[in-house]
From TrEMBL:
<comment type="pathway">
    <text>Cofactor biosynthesis; biotin biosynthesis.</text>
</comment>
<keyword id="KW-0808">Transferase</keyword>
<feature type="binding site">
    <location>
        <position position="22"/>
    </location>
    <ligand>
        <name>substrate</name>
    </ligand>
</feature>
<feature type="binding site">
    <location>
        <position position="184"/>
    </location>
    <ligand>
        <name>pyridoxal 5'-phosphate</name>
    </ligand>
</feature>
<dbReference type="InterPro" id="IPR050087">
    <property type="entry name" value="AON_synthase_class-II"/>
</dbReference>
<feature type="binding site">
    <location>
        <position position="138"/>
    </location>
    <ligand>
        <name>substrate</name>
    </ligand>
</feature>
<feature type="binding site">
    <location>
        <begin position="113"/>
        <end position="114"/>
    </location>
    <ligand>
        <name>pyridoxal 5'-phosphate</name>
    </ligand>
</feature>
<feature type="binding site">
    <location>
        <position position="240"/>
    </location>
    <ligand>
        <name>pyridoxal 5'-phosphate</name>
    </ligand>
</feature>
<comment type="function">
    <text>Catalyzes the decarboxylative condensation of pimeloyl-[acyl-carrier protein] and L-alanine to produce 8-amino-7-oxononanoate (AON), [acyl-carrier protein], and carbon dioxide.</text>
</comment>
<dbReference type="InterPro" id="IPR015421">
    <property type="entry name" value="PyrdxlP-dep_Trfase_major"/>
</dbReference>
<dbReference type="GO" id="GO:0008710">
    <property type="term" value="F:8-amino-7-oxononanoate synthase activity"/>
</dbReference>
<comment type="similarity">
    <text>Belongs to the class-II pyridoxal-phosphate-dependent aminotransferase family. BioF subfamily.</text>
</comment>
<feature type="domain" description="Aminotransferase class I/classII large">
    <location>
        <begin position="42"/>
        <end position="386"/>
    </location>
</feature>
<dbReference type="Pfam" id="PF00155">
    <property type="entry name" value="Aminotran_1_2"/>
</dbReference>
<dbReference type="InterPro" id="IPR022834">
    <property type="entry name" value="AONS_Proteobacteria"/>
</dbReference>
<protein>
    <recommendedName>
        <fullName>8-amino-7-oxononanoate synthase</fullName>
        <ecNumber>2.3.1.47</ecNumber>
    </recommendedName>
</protein>
<feature type="binding site">
    <location>
        <position position="359"/>
    </location>
    <ligand>
        <name>substrate</name>
    </ligand>
</feature>
Length: 394
């Protein structure tokens, strides 16, 4: 065997020894709570399809119609010939949707949230910028910050006193605070009103990744800015469309000048093939649902399931976290025990992922339960019972 392969195999064996090998499972049906995996029907608490739209018949029909109208692929990047009427309509709708929160709003659609974050930070920050990054930020923000070549300073989770000291000490012309709105592994919310006040005081951008808030938070599902009733020219907003919106992609919304700058300069936007137009076409139907009475009803259902789960689950050694969102972690601690619990759950028909370092800090391996409007109260009651039972057994 080649030396190069042998070295990789040794590293993989090391990962195995720490119970850190990640594995994929093959799903065979749409991503609903009753998904079929490797031939078995499971009760799933792992998708980010918070409103249960991923298998919505109207969105599936719109995707099919989009393929008929525009074909299978976009054929090129946006700045060459890949920018279809569907992409343009989607961006207009998204800009209108977030307009109550953002002055002179314009939106830019991306294939994924990961790319949107790389693009946003790369275009707005540069080697002349001080970028203040929350310690629990998503990997795509961390990578975007690195790629931007900005001077990155990480502030501890929720520590706005520390952030305020760092901002006051900064002499950079460009300053930028970057944060998740809903922390993806803990489920808690950033204190955006205070963060925005600090940014306005120090003339800094506030860049918000609302991957887990768009469609879910706020009375009309406009996301975390609506939830906190915030509006400011300093805001740059990223929302994903593969989670609550049920399809794929993401968008950045900000003042039109910010977006035009991104079109001119953001490499992950410029140098990649545009997403299939049919996807953008389907997202127009997603937005109709999110904005309308059905979206409101789905949000009400989701919030009632979140309350049920957090109020009824009683644990003694494992710990829940102070989360009022659809992300409900159960912290177990050791990697191998978290794996064992996830495996036992799976044996009994519940699919709940175990999340381990480096995604979460060492010693805080956890089950990441995610709830969806497509779950029923009975589904949640079954999971609560099973978790309580397993805690006693293990
Ligand atoms: N930001 C956060 C906070 C996320 O949780 C995710 C996805 N897990 C992303 C960005 C990336 O979004 P996408 O999956 O669309 O690439």
């Amino acid at each position: 065997m080649s030396k190069l392969i042998a070295e990789l195999d040794a590293q993989l064996a090391h990962i195995d020894a720490q119970s850190l090998r990640r594995r994929r499972r093959v799903t065979e049906t749409p991503s609903t709570p009753r998904v079929q995996v490797d031939g078995r029907a499971m009760l799933a608490f792992c998708s980010n399809d918070y409103l249960g739209l991923a298998a919505h018949p109207k969105i599936i029909a719109a995707l099919q119609q989009g393929a008929e109208l525009y074909g299978a692929g976009s054929g090129a990047s946006h700045l060459i010939s890949g920018h279809s009427r569907a992409h343009a309509q989607l961006e207009e709708r998204l800009a209108q949707f977030v307009a109550p929160q953002i002055d002179n709003a314009r939106a830019l659609y991306f294939c994924t949230g990961y790319m949107a974050n790389l693009a946003m930070l790369g275009a707005l920050a540069g080697s002349d910028a001080d970028l203040f990054s929350e310690s629990l930020n998503h990997a795509s923000l961390i990578d975007g910050a690195r790629l931007s070549r900005a001077n990155v300073q990480v502030y501890p989770h929720g520590d706005l006193e520390k952030l305020s000291v760092l901002l006051a000490a900064s002499t950079a012309v460009k300053k930028m605070v970057v944060t998740d709105s809903v922390f993806s592994m803990d489920g808690d919310l950033a204190d955006l009103p205070r963060l925005l006040a600090l940014c306005e005081q120090h003339d800094a951008w506030l860049v918000v990744d609302d991957a887990h808030g768009f469609g879910v938070l706020g009375a009309d599902g406009r996301g975390v800015l609506e939830h906190f009733n915030l509006r400011s020219p300093n805001l740059v907003y990223m929302g994903t469309l593969g989670k609550a919106a049920g399809v794929a992609g993401a968008f950045v919304a900000a003042h039109a000048s910010v977006i035009e700058w991104m079109v001119q300069r953001a490499r992950p936007y410029i140098y990649t093939t545009a997403a299939p137009p049919a996807v953008a076409h389907a997202l127009l139907t997603s937005l109709d649902i999110i904005e309308g009475p059905e979206g409101a009803a789905r949000r009400t259902q989701l919030h009632s399931l979140i309350a049920q789960f957090s109020q009824t689950l009683q644990l003694t050694t494992w710990q829940t976290m102070a989360s009022a969102t659809a992300i409900q972690p159960v912290v177990i601690g050791a990697n191998d025990v978290a794996m064992q619990v996830a495996a036992k759950l799976y044996e009994r028909g519940f699919w709940v992922p175990a999340i381990r370092p480096p995604t979460v800090p060492v010693g805080t391996a956890r089950l990441r339960v995610t709830l969806s409007a497509a779950h029923t109260a009975d589904d949640v009651a079954q999971l609560v019972d099973m978790l309580q039972q397993l805690e006693k057994e293990i």
